[in-house]
Write a structure and sequence with these properties.
The termini are far apart. The protein is of the alpha+beta class and 261 residues long. Helix content is 21%, strand content 31%.
Length: 261
């Protein structure tokens, strides 16, 4: 079966019964035909999903990691320890290290300036400070990530800072009452040689509350409202209701979990 005439190929995520995670492959058949072809070749295929179309020839760099879509595509990430890709709600292999137990995370959000909004996460002896970019506004993704964490998933948040990637991982811990919260900075976009800024053990609910509550206080505060149009979200082609105030970010699910306010 031939691809759409405007599409040269598709990038697929393929899950095999005999391998952890997902493999990324490029194929010129559509998804059902590609899955059938893999099975006829003797592979134990469980699932094939489309990551994106590829309208032009693209190099694969480094081999197998597909850096041209790596960190910035749909919260997928490469797991070098397991040599596979991980879906957005699938945790990475737990790295070595001795995470520090903490009661909560300290999250602070600064007033934006010229499309840059400072965020600082502090936990234990670790600190990660960065400027969120209005070009890749991370806040809806952040709330969705917190909802997934609150629901018991080992979710991951990737924040694109103009080709610098901040990743917040929630991983299983030996103590089932805790989760491992790890924040790394990836300057290359291929999940190798990251700088780990935070590595702690924290109660799941405390992790969610200690990020969500200060985010809501900041997001609904007067300082952001005053800076909204000039410094963070100029009207442009935005919906009219978003011109003069921050868009709605509250989560009813998280409000029920931790109490609104």
């Amino acid at each position: 079966m031939k691809p759409h005439p405007d599409v040269m190929a598709w990038l697929y995520a393929v899950r095999l019964a005999s391998r952890p995670g997902w493999r990324w492959e490029i194929g010129r058949l559509d998804a059902p035909a590609y899955a059938d072809a893999l099975r006829r070749a003797g592979l134990d295929v469980r699932e094939v999903i489309v990551i994106r179309d590829i309208p032009t020839d693209r190099a694969i760099d480094p081999p197998g990691t597909f850096g041209f879509v790596c960190r910035g595509w749909g919260q997928w990430t490469y797991d070098p320890a397991a040599e596979c890709w991980r879906a957005p709600d699938e945790p990475m292999t737990r790295p070595p290290g001795a995470p520090v137990p903490v009661a909560a995370i300290e999250a602070t959000f600064g007033i934006p300036e010229l499309g840059r909004l400072p965020i600082t996460l502090t936990a234990g002896n670790g600190v990660c400070s960065f400027d969120a970019s209005e070009l890749h506004d991370p806040f809806r993704d952040m709330v969705a990530w917190l909802e997934n964490v609150a629901d018991g998933r080992f979710a991951r948040l990737t924040i694109d800072i103009d080709c610098l990637w901040i990743q917040c991982h929630v991983l299983p811990a030996d103590d089932g009452s805790l989760v491992r919260f790890l924040v790394d900075v990836d300057e290359r976009g291929i999940a190798r040689d990251e700088i780990v800024d935070i590595d702690v053990l924290v109660p799941r609910r405390a992790l969610v509350e200690s990020i969500y509550a200060p985010l809501m206080r900041f997001w609904e505060g007067r300082d952001l409202r005053r800076a909204w149009e000039e410094e963070w979200c100029p009207p442009g082609d935005r919906p009219e209701e978003e011109w003069d105030k921050p868009y709605r970010l509250r989560s009813e699910r998280l409000d029920r979990l931790i109490g609104r306010g």
